[in-house]
Specification:
- There is one protein chain.
- About 35% of the residues lie in helices and about 10% in strands.
- Helix 1 runs parallel beside helix 2.
- With about 350 residues, the chain is an alpha/beta fold.
- It has ten helices and ten strands.
- Helix 5 links the parallel strand 7 and strand 8.
- The strands form two sheets. An eight-stranded parallel sheet has the order 3-4-5-6-7-8-9-10. Strands 1-2 form a two-stranded antiparallel sheet.
Length: about 350
């Protein structure tokens, strides 16, 4: 498949979300985490193709190890497809080992991405805990700590500085919980505009979704189709497969599409922003086009709302600290922050 001019999705057809700073963000984006399976060149060429097909929201991160290559294709795509910078919406994230060096980390991402500013910058995880790229699920850092709010707010103050410096338009969080966000909202001078979280039909995080929307924070959902190419360290025997669920498959059969498309449609119609990742042209093009046509009907949306199985796939166990009981401690399941 080769995307031709008549296949480009018009910007006017792509739904948007408004952030608290007044900016408009596309309601679907392109992820760039290669899941330790795809190299920087393969990912960046997919970004180039995605921009050609009509994507404008590109979700990056320093830890993905491909921002330099993506920067090259961003520059090339803007020239080749006459995309003005203000039409792009580029996100990056500060990695865990740079919580004390946020401004320098952001400047490095800007340099790598060949940009003067980022539309959105996130704290990737609320812990300063580090793990090496490509590690297995048993990897643990001896320096890992639980969430320490005072330390996190020092990081957040630097995030706020980035806005004041004009290097970043909006800031947000990722992999957070309601108890942690309550503290951040209480103490922040510039409140999070978005919060990125795992979200797919079998892990809907309804309480978190409701909390975010009630507090004017736009939810962004990663793993929107259940991330079948996620790293092996994030796979367990208990994991379920969204695209194999009968309700998802029934909707796919009605519309004559792959079940993955149903997951994308559900996300946008529900109200959170999915950021699916694929290096295959037919897949990322179909993902984008799917949100502009043939919506799920009310009954399908109701049926999908009922299949939530609390099936978290990205458990984050590599970030655990000495003395923690298990990955559940990362997510404050009882409503209190684990220490």
């Amino acid at each position: 498949m080769t995307i031709t001019t008549d296949m480009v999705v018009a910007q006017s057809l792509i739904p948007t979300k408004q952030l608290r700073n007044g900016a408009s963000m596309p309601a679907i984006g392109m992820g760039t985490f290669g899941s330790d399976r795809f190299g920087p060149e393969e990912v960046s060429e997919a970004v180039y193709g995605a921009l050609r097909s009509g994507y404008r929201l590109i979700d990056c991160a320093s830890i993905y190890g491909n921002e330099q290559q993506i920067g090259e294709v961003l520059a090339r795509a803007q020239q080749d497809f006459a995309i003005p910078r203000e039409e792009l919406f580029i996100t990056s994230k500060v990695w865990n080992d740079q919580h004390d060096n946020v401004i320098a980390s952001c400047k490095q991402s800007l340099q790598d991405l060949q940009l003067d500013y980022l539309d959105l910058y996130l704290v990737h995880w609320p812990f300063p805990n580090f793990h090496p790229i490509g590690c297995d699920g048993d990897s643990r850092s001896p320096d890992a700590t639980p969430y320490i709010h005072k330390a996190f707010m020092k990081t957040w103050r630097q995030m706020e500085q980035l806005v004041e410096m004009g290097l970043v338009k909006a800031i947000g969080t990722s992999n957070m919980t309601i108890p942690k966000l309550e503290l951040v909202l209480r103490d922040a001078a510039i409140k999070p505009a978005v919060s990125e979280m795992e979200c797919h039909p079998l892990f809907q995080q309804q309480a978190m979704f409701d909390y975010l929307t009630a507090n004017d924070i736009v939810p962004i959902g990663f793993c929107p189709i259940g991330s079948p190419t996620r790293p092996d360290r994030d796979k367990t025997a208990e994991d379920l497969v969204d695209i194999e669920h009968p309700v998802v498959q029934a909707a796919a059969k009605r519309l004559g599409v792959h079940p993955a498309i149903i997951c994308i449609k559900w996300a946008v119609q529900r109200g959170h922003v999915p950021i699916p990742f694929s290096v295959r042209e037919n897949e990322y093009y179909s993902n984008l086009r799917s949100v502009t046509e043939h919506p799920l009907n009310d009954q399908e949306m109701q049926d999908l709302a009922k299949i939530d199985a609390n099936n978290r796939l990205i458990k984050g166990q590599v970030f655990l600290w000495e003395g923690s009981k298990g990955w559940e401690d990362l997510w404050d399941l009882d409503g209190t922050i684990a220490s």
